[in-house]
Amino acid sequence: MESLIHDLRFSLRSLRRRPGFTVIAVATVALGIGVNVAIFSVVHSVLLRSLPYRDPERVVHVLNRSNTVPRLAVGPRDFVDYQEQATLFEGLGAMGMRGDATLTGGDEPAHAILQFATDNLFSLLGFEPALGRGFLPEDAALPGSQEETDSVPSTQTLPGTILSHGLWQRYFGGDPDIIGQTVEVNNERAHIVGVMPEDFAIVPNSERVREAQPDLWFPFFYDFREVNRRVRNLLVFGRLKTNVTVEQARAQMDGISRRLQEEFPEYQNQNLQIQVLPARHDTVKSVRPALLMLSGAVGFLLLLSCANVANLLLLRARTRLSEVSVRGALGCGPRRLARQILIECLVLAGAGGLVGLALAWLGIRLLMTLKPADLPRFEAVSLNGPVLAFSLGVSMLAAVLVGLLPAIQAGRINLVEGLKDQAQGSVGGRRSRLLGSLVVAEVALSLVLLLGAGLMIRTSVALQAIRPGFVPEGALTLSVNLYDEKYFESGPQTRIAFFQELEERLRALAGVEEVGSTNWVPLSGGGGVVTGYAWDEDSEARWPAARANFRVVTGDYFRAIGTRLLVGRSFSELELTEPTPSVIVDELLAGQSWPGEDPIGKSFVARQPENRVEVVGVVEHVRSFELREEGRGTIYFPLGAVPYGALKVIVRGSGDLGPLFAPIRQEIRSLDPGLAIHHVATLQDLFNVELAPTRFALVLMGIFAGLALALAAIGLYGVIAYSVSQRTAEIGIRMAFGADSGRVLRLVVGRGVALTAAGAVVGAAATFALSRFVASLVYGVSTADPTTMIVVALVLAAVGLLASYVPARRAAKVDPASALRAI
Asked: For the segment 344-368, what is each residue's pLDDT rounded down to a tens digit?
């Protein structure tokens, strides 16, 4: 122990005597550690951290799939079958598709997100309300069916609701006596029975990650056994029994699926199957490849940092050769010398780890500003216990990586040769080859990161060049929901008339060019609204094996969104106000259903097997959910055929859209002051959200690639400068015998070019081996894209030449006489 303390003190004194070397080494190690800790904090929060459920590893998602749809919601009637037949689960719970709600009764209407759930869902996942209680069967009272006494309904006859902590604070001011009070939801009163805790969250699956947590929870108001089997609107959670594996549960659900297919021919036509997916894996599977790629990138950067510091230590070893040799001659054995080097590296890595933590904290702040919208659980990213433990581990790994080669070299020093080499001012070729090998590795790692950044640039360019089927620029979208009973008691014409009047008023506003409405805005997240359809006898027999996007639109919707009409006509005034069989389809659905034929006038079945419609127009295909995927075809129904009460209004204007919102809001309030306006965004915002994950990866890969290139350049410069200092006498002799400065320049630069070329070859081979891991992250470009490779090679060559040229110029200015006198 005493000798270890002595070595530690000696290392501290040695590093203090060389502050320039120490600062550069610590900063380089800190850079590698800092970016690794920052990215690991994201990986830990998103990929590794357990879901906020009781025994989260036993929680699974249960969903369906068919021949044409890989992820289908579960039908209420099927859910009952699963509950009755599945014996390997402690329980199955479900929540319905969320909806928008309007809270009334306050100073002004407020928007809220409403979610229905089975009464066992919270307890199944391990949650208890912070105030009040969970749901009971009597909480599912039907709205409007209360028996009133003295015009005041009893709380026992009102539907029960549970509030989120956020809504409780925001709308009710955190009233501690909130339990037992009522809230008006869509002009219906509900009895508040509970408030969930602040940390309560049901983590969405990978297709719903953009959606905020619900504000209000209600129990289902209907009997699942009475629902048509075609209805599929449940997100199902299951808790496996102790010691039951996911594979066992899948096998049992496969058996249930086969029985249902035998009992219901339409299930067999669709090849409807049941999926059982671990909840955590299902939640993060869409972002896993990108995060793993970034983890690999920062791992490479750590290796680069360590290689650079190892190079610095090997270069510094020349100045310490006499010291080390004398210590060896006085009895300090090879192991003690190697240990001394490793302790010095531990000191450097420890200091680098502390500085790296500060850099990681800054890096996390940067990541927060770059966060893409579809990165789940990102808000929990922090320097927590596991991240600090990872930081310690990375620091120790850095110490080993930095000190291993220098320690081995120190242990192999020949004392006599070492003293002789020091006296002669030269070092053998072994160290030179080792330095060169480290530079080759640095260049190879840099090339891998540069190619990754280049591919992300090409992907970003390709995504932005996509025509998504609409024009994002210059359009504002907002949601209006007609939940008041007055819009339904008098029939659908009241809802139709409201939106007609609203669009006319908005069209008259200054700066407004077009106005239209729909039930679903492209790229707004989530799974969208889909419907079954069939275009011939075979597809009708397999109903509803084919699925299409289901859209309800008003007359000027296509002009407002910037979608082109390709064939036929738009909807007439009659079709927009009265039920008719007319529909408009997009080019994708028309090409799939009637290839090579004129789709105008074609008749097919949509929404229900008995509902036959006729095509009156064809519009260009709109990428509704993701820019990277073409997606499904789309069927557009006029508002007169499907008189929705909840629509998204699109307003296309000229110039800045911001000032338009105030007059739009005023017009809506003048029509009905009880309406809440929500989900206000521009189409460009939604388009940018789709690009955000690529931009996130692009910015980070660009930063990592730039740092890697700088580290490689520094390493190459150091090796060439070291080579020049060791070959001063040789260069002097060459120049004395007639070699001009140009020849010396080419000699030295040639060494740098050779190292760069060798690194490029190794890096290209590594990139080829890793290409399959990044294939899913790129779009519109091959992982072996020649243009990207050529550009990266040219950048690397330019940096290699520049790093070699500076010491080469110094070598070309060597005075032969001075060099010969120094021999």
From this structure: 888 888 899 999 999 999 988 888 8
The three-state (H, E, C) secondary structure of 697-758, written as one string? HHHHHHHHHHHHHHHHHHHHHHHHHHHHHHCHHHHHHHHHCCCCHHHHHHHHHHHHHHHHHH
The two tokens of residue 648 are: 């998204």
Q: Pick the residue with more confidence: 150 or 619?
A: 619
Pairing of strands 547-553, 634-638: parallel
- Its pTM stands at 0.81
The CA distance from 588 to 621, in Å, is 6
Rounded CA separation 203/51 (Å): 7
What's the rounded Cα separation, in Å, for the pair 636 and 343?
71
pLDDT of residue 192: 95
> What is the average pLDDT across 732-739?
74
- Tokens 């789309």 appear where? 634
Cβ atoms of 266 and 543 within 8 Å: the answer is yes
Residue 164, C-beta contacts closer than 8 angstroms, at least 6 positions apart: 195, 196, 200, 213, 214, 215, 216, 217
Check residue 424 and give its pLDDT: 45
Element (H, E) at 273: strand 273-278
DSSP characters for 536-568?
SHHHHHTTTSSEEEEEEE-TTHHHHHTPPEEEE
Q: What angle do CA 99, 672, 686 make, to 5 degrees?
A: 45
Q: Which of 526, 620, 517 is nearest to 560 (CA)?
A: 517
Average pLDDT (521-547) is 84
H or E element in which residue 94 lies: strand 89-96
∠ at Cα 761 (759, 763), nearest 5°? 65
The span from the CA of 816 to the CA of 741, in Å, is 11
CB 160 within 8 A of CB 212: no
Cβ-count burial of 488 within 10 angstroms (0-12 exposed, 13-18 middle, 19+ buried)?
A: middle
Cα dist. 802→479, 499, 683, 742, 763 in Å? 57, 66, 46, 16, 20
d(CA 427, CA 419) in angstroms, rounded, equals 10
Helix (H), strand (E) counts: the chain = 26, 24
- CA atoms 354, 356, 359, 364: torsion sign: negative
Computed on alpha carbons and rounded to an integer, the radius of gyration of the chain in Å comes to: 34
Phi, psi of 552 (to 5 degrees): -110, 130
CA distance 537 to 259: 26
Amino acid, res. 375: L
**DSSP code per residue over 322-376:** HHHHHHHHTT--HHHHHHHHHHHHHHHHHHHHHHHHHHHHHHHHHHHHH--TT-T
Of the candidates 563, 571, 606, 603, the one whose C-alpha atom is nearest the C-alpha of residue 587 is 563
DSSP secondary structure, 173-212, as one string? TT-TT-TT-EEEETTEEEEEEEE--TT------TTSTTSP
Give which of 789, 476, 812, 529 is closest to 652, Cα–Cα: 476
What percent of the chain has pLDDT above 70?
88
Span 714-734, average pLDDT: 76
CB 807 within 8 A of CB 721: yes
For residue 378, name the pLDDT band (cuts at 50, 70, 90).
confident
Measured CA distances, 366 to 237, 371, 464 (Å): 35, 9, 24
| Number of Cβ atoms within 10 Å of the Cβ of 436 | 21
Report the distance separating Cα 586 and Cα 595, nearest Å.
13
CA distance 348 to 31: 13
Answer whether 542's CB lies under 8 Å from 270's CB: yes
Strands 582-586 and 634-638: antiparallel
CA distance 153 to 462: 60
Of 625 and 326, the structure prediction assigns the larger pLDDT to 625
